[in-house]
UniProtKB/TrEMBL annotation:
Domain of life: Bacteria
Protein name stated in the entry: Carbonic anhydrase or acetyltransferase, isoleucine patch superfamily
Keyword Transferase in record: yes
Keywords from the named record: Transferase
Organism: Sporomusa malonica
Pfam family, one: Hexapep_2
Length: 328
């Protein structure tokens, strides 16, 4: 047995290969298809983090690595004994060596290679120096002065169900109550409050919070995916409108905006009130779309604040880290 510890509000979805003494803290979500997420011994995933492995982009995490709060890892390879600061984002194809330290809020771009014993900071992340003896002593101290590694004897575990029709918690706010299409899938740890309408075949994943209280309506179209630990809310006298075929990645905050059809908001992004995103727009991971921004059809934006970086020539396909299909 793997001695897996999963706090009550954490969720594992899919099939995994896990070592001994893995710990998943409150509010964290791990999702994996076809055993595409593998974690070594004594690794911790702290509160409200999200790790997603897919067949196209598997995740491999070594032993005695610690993810801070609200981290996101999609399709990354991460070594042993890493110390990962709060809010760090790893994007698909990034490859991290052993005993690395990441500053809070670091974004590791897709395909980035980080050598062993590196200190990495920034958005995008860059290696600023090699570990010192003091750094190594800190890593050891945080692990009870035991940085020895032993053979990982993996156990294959399957968690489910993947989702179900209206499994989540729905709350009224005064006389307002969510209206959910019968074909929508609401994961059990999602919570939806008040004046919210969700269309057909949409997916609201684990840990999502959608708050449509007295401030105004939240309107979510058909075939929309709101992924793990994302929060939707809005200011008074505003609306939050998400049109059909939109994908919102894990760990985002979407606040009082309009998002046009077929758009993709990548992981860890923030979209602020009164902004308008056109059709087929792409917001890159970790970006902040400031208040009252207008993003035209087919534009790609990135940064803090987000700025134009390119244009989509064709209509985008739903990314590999989204759900393929869920049968009710």
């Amino acid at each position: 047995m793997s001695n897996l510890r999963v706090d009550d509000s954490a969720r594992l979805v899919g099939s995994f290969r896990l070592g001994d003494n893995v710990y998943i803290a409150q509010g964290s979500v791990l999702r994996s298809t076809d055993n595409s997420l593998k974690i070594g011994n004594n690794t911790w995933v702290l509160e409200n983090s999200v790790i997603i492995g897919t067949s196209e982009h598997p995740v491999r995490v070594g032993s005695k690595t610690v993810f801070g709060h609200k981290c996101i890892a999609i399709g990354a390879q991460i070594g042993d004994l890493c110390e990962i600061g709060n809010g760090t984002i790893f994007l698909p194809g990034s490859n991290i060596g052993n005993m690395c330290i990441f500053g809070e809020g670091t974004i590791v771009p897709a395909g980035t290679m980080i050598p062993d014993e590196s200190v990495v900071v920034g958005r995008p992340g860059r290696v600023i120096r090699k570990l010192t003896d003091k750094d190594k002593n800190m890593i050891a101290r945080m692990r009870g002065n035991d940085i020895g590694l032993r053979l990982v004897e993996e156990v294959s575990l399957v968690f489910g169900p993947m989702g179900g029709k209206q499994m989540g918690k729905l709350y009224n706010y005064g006389d307002r109550y969510p209206i959910i299409d019968d074909s929508a899938v609401i994961f059990d740890s999602a919570e939806i409050t008040g004046n919210v309408k969700i269309g057909s075949n949409s997916i609201i994943a684990s840990g999502v919070r959608i708050i449509g209280n007295s401030h105004g309506p939240v309107k979510i179209g058909s075939n929309v995916q709101i992924l793990e630990n994302t929060v939707l809310h809005l200011l008074p006298d505003n609306e939050l409108i998400i049109e059909d075929n939109v994908t919102i990645g894990p760990g985002c905050v979407i606040h009082g905006t309009t998002i046009g059809p077929n758009s993709i908001i990548e992981s860890g992004s923030i979209v602020c009130d009164y902004s308008v995103l056109g059709t087929n727009t792409l917001v890159k991971s970790g970006s902040v779309v400031k208040q009252r921004s207008t993003i035209l059809d087919n534009q790609i934006v990135e940064g803090f604040p987000a700025d134009f970086v390119g244009e989509n020539v064709d209509m985008m396909e739903r990314p590999s880290w989204a759900y393929k299909q869920i049968n009710g």
